[in-house]
Amino acid sequence: MTPFAATLRAEWSKLVSLRSTKILLALTVLLGVGLTALVAWVAGATFDNWDAAGRNEFEPIGTAMIGAILSAILLLVLGVKAATAEYRSGMIRLTLTATPRRRRVLGAKAAVVAALSLVAGLVLTIGMFLVAQAIFASYGMPSASLADGDALRAVIGNGVLAVQFPVMAMALGIVLRSTSGAVLGIFAIIFGPPFLGGLLPAWYGEHVVKYLPGAASDAIAMGHLEGVAEGLSPVIAALVVVAWLAVFLAGAWIVLERRDA
Amino acid sequence: MTTIEARGLTKRFGTTVAVEGLTFDIRPGVVTGFLGPNGAGKSTTMRMIVGLDHPTAGSVLLDGRHYRELEQPMREVGALLDARTAGKRTARQHLRWLADAGGLPRGRVGEVLEQVGLAEVAGRRVGGFSLGMAQRLGIATALLGDPATLLLDEPMNGLDPEGIRWIRTLLQGFAAEGRTVVVSSHLMHEMEETAGHVLVIGRGRLIADTSIADFTQAATGSDVHVRSPDAGALRDVLERAGAAVAPGDGGALVVTGLLAPRIGDLAAQHGLRVHELTPRRASLEAAFMELTRDSVDYRPGVAA
Questions:
Q1: Closest residue by Cα to residue A216 from A195, A190, A252
Q2: Hey, are the CB atoms on A97 and B50 less than 8 Å from each other?
Q3: Torsion over CA of A74, A77, A82 and A88, rounded to 10 degrees?
């Protein structure tokens, strides 16, 4: 076994043996699909009362992804805990004694968080999509099929990009070492700048917001859908997402290397 | 066969000096006791040995290499730094991920659990372990890689006498195999029968680096406590015989340089009465306290 594979295996068995990991993964899927189902059901039940403009604007693919808002928060916590649980218990000292090459530990943690988020993300987006379309169809509303290229891009895109925030959250957890601090911090990073957009000059809204991590991943997964604000081109957006991940991981690496454990 | 070499090893936290200019070699084949009062810098030093803390100045190397450069650290150094292991993992799960991390065969997990006497509680959560069980688990983690060097911080803390005897035998066995064994303690008596060599530190500085035999000899200067109604005359007689006599408690004489039988004989020859004649041997514990007295940060009854 290569040294990195050994570290990966250890990080994997640590993260999956945490009870909070199993609970968060289950809730990610259940609450996400549940929220989508609720919104779809409410839309279906009231659809006949919508005005013509509203019915015309209804877009079944993007609407199906609504539950991801809730799930994203849960996966963030999972990412944070992958880092901070060890600081809380003091186990980080054992981890860094067993694997003194700290970059290797950080890389393995990122890979494990990414793998779990990827699987949870794909199960979630496929689940949300299928449940929502079934409900839309049962109410005779417009619905979409996975065979449809636009739908596939949204489902796969959102599923794969579910990896982004948990890995950033893990990196921030390494830097801050506190679960609540890192959760608050990543919330501030995700929701703060778009919120500030309303207060700052229009230039900020036009030229800065689209480079923020949330807007960039939306441009990849949702940019092609009707009624979604135009953002970066998918290729540029993908580079922006990778750049954000790189910045967070590099920051965590520098701090982890230099700090006493 | 690993030698641990510290050269000018220094660690400051802000303005607080934890360890200052430590220079020593720890050699294989003998149990080295790392002694000092609480807060003397023992744990900080051990954390620097395994690369957890970065020295402010100086270095500590294992056969010329930094711990962080070791390819298979768990096979080279087994460390117990903090036995308190919180967590919901079972003892077996805990050792398994460590075995994975160290690239060690998982078969080692069962072996070390057996070796430290935790095989029967392997399926219990480590968070619920008593201090003694946590210590044994910590020792199991250190033994996992069958390492060339053992580095144990206060391993006897919380162990019962049977446990202390067990760990003594274990450590001495390891040293006899030619491995390097370092054990820290703030209690001299724990080291008396365990260590062959001692490093004593106080307030972050090295106070002694010597074999336990030399330490004992230097430390246990013996004297004789004498009570006599004829103290004045006896004092003259003893001093003429070459003894040093100092006043003790309640008019007693504290005599050094003569053994008790000789003092008794001299008193009899001169017809002097003796009511008490007590040879006293300073304990290692007392010697250790004496040695580190000036380096204890906080002492009871002393206003800061």
A1: A190
A2: yes
A3: -140
Full residue range of the structural domain in which residue A177 is found: 3-258
Q: Residue ranges per domain, chain B?
A: 4-218, 222-280
Chain A nearest CA to B217, separation (Å): 38
List the CATH code of the domain at B4-218.
Answer: 3.40.50.300
CATH architecture classification, B222-280: 2-Layer Sandwich (3.30)
Tell whether the torsion through CA atoms of A31, A37, A39 and A45 is positive or negative: negative
Number of other CB atoms surrounding residue B256 within 10 Å: 12
Q: How far is A173 from chain B (nearest CA, A)?
A: 19
Closest CA to B29 of B195, B240, B217: B195
Say if the Cβ atoms of A6 and B54 lie within 8 Å: no
Chain B residue at shortest CA distance from A105:
B101
How far apart CA A227 and CA A207 sit, in angstroms, is: 20
**Which A-chain residues 14-43 have CB contacts (< 8 A) with chain B?**
14, 17-19
The beta-carbon neighbor of A14 closest among B67, B68, B97 is B97
**pLDDT, tens digit (0-9, with 9 covering 90-100), for A84-141:** 999 988 899 999 999 999 999 999 999 999 999 999 999 999 999 999 999 999 999 9
Nearest to B67 among A7, A88, A100 (CB): A100
For residue A73, the distance in angstroms to the closest alpha carbon of chain B comes to 24
Full strand arrangement of the beta sheet holding B253-256: B244-247, B253-256, B223-227, B276-280
| B4 neighbors B180 (Cβ within 8 angstroms) | yes
Report the number of distinct structural domains present in chain A: 1
Here the ipTM equals 0.85
Contact B260, B277 (CB under 8 A): yes
Residue A41 burial (10 A CB sphere; 0-12, 13-18, 19+): middle
| Rounded-to-integer distance, Cα B146 and Cα A122, Å | 43
Q: Which residue has the tokens 């962080």?
A: B68
Dihedral, A71, A75, A77, A79 alpha carbons, nearest 10: -170
| Alpha-carbon B247 to chain mean position | 34
Q: Which residue's entry shows tokens 């000018």?
A: B8
pLDDT tens, residue by residue, B16-58? 999 999 999 999 999 999 998 888 899 999 999 999 999 999 9
pLDDT digits (tens, 9 = 90+) for B77-89: 999 998 676 677 8
- Tally: H helices and E strands in chain A: 13, 0
Question: Which pTM does this prediction carry?
Answer: 0.85
Which of B10, B65, B75, B98 to mutate against chain A (most A CBs within 10 Å)? B98
Q: How many residues in total does chain B contain?
A: 304
Using an 8 Å CB-CB cutoff, list chain B residues near A97: 50-52, 73, 79, 81
Residues 126-155 of B with CB under 8 A from A: 141
